């Protein structure tokens, strides 16, 4: 049985195509369903703990092009983090970046996972098996500095993550650097740690992928999102060809 086109857990933008590009942006939304109260300040919902700033705009721009589609998360990671395994406590976080999330304490975790986590992953499986892309782009963003370490600036414009399969990263790094970008190799995060999605959906099946983190100040506005969407469209097509070759 195919998963539905859209649900409260995800949105599909564009038309998935065999041999195309599939963008996966699971932290793209800060939406909280009306029947869920996280019990935190509304201002926090516009910060990184709730959403990967900029990635929704990039995914939607890319999906306007024929041959590219995007699977976009439709709830905040504070409601359910689909880039964590179900057994990881952080999949429904009780704290995040030093902030308590009281609305996630003592809840029916099984029901929350069944409502959001499983439908998202079922749809991703459906897309990868039903219309296998030439490349899956896993898209995230990171803060210019950590709240806990404000004096430690992160110099990378973007970072490339991977676990065992570094084909996409090795193909993309020189292309990005040729555009004058500072590229982190497993920085500021490591794909050997944040690997729930890639292990489950791409590395376990040998599917070509590129997992990129972009610094949020570069994509906080529409112009930056359009610039990176154009860049990633070009680079993804070249990476797909190189891996296939």
Q: Average pLDDT value?
A: 94
Main beta-sheet annotation: 7 strands, mixed
Strand content: 15-25%
Shape: globular
Total number of helices: 5
Query: Gap between N and C termini, in Å?
Result: 34 Å
Keywords: Hydrolase
GO molecular function: hydrolase activity
InterPro entries: N-FG_amidohydro (IPR007709), UCP029730 (IPR011227)
Protein name: N-formylglutamate amidohydrolase
Primary descriptors:
9 strands, Aminopeptidase, seven-stranded mixed sheet, 245 residues, globular
Give a written overview of the molecule.
- This protein is of the alpha/beta class and 245 residues long.
- The protein has a single domain, classed as 3-Layer(aba) Sandwich (Aminopeptidase), CATH 3.40.630.
- Helix content is 29%, strand content 17%.
- It has helices spanning 55-62, 109-130, 167-177, 196-201, 222-244, and strands at residues 10-14, 21-25, 68-73, 95-96, 99-100, 135-142, 158-161, 183-185, 209-215.
- It has a seven-stranded mixed β-sheet with strand order 1-3-2-6-9-7-8, sandwiched between helices. Strands 4-5 form a two-stranded antiparallel ribbon.
- Helix 1 (55-62) links the parallel strand 2 (21-25) and strand 3 (68-73).
- The two termini are 34 Å apart.
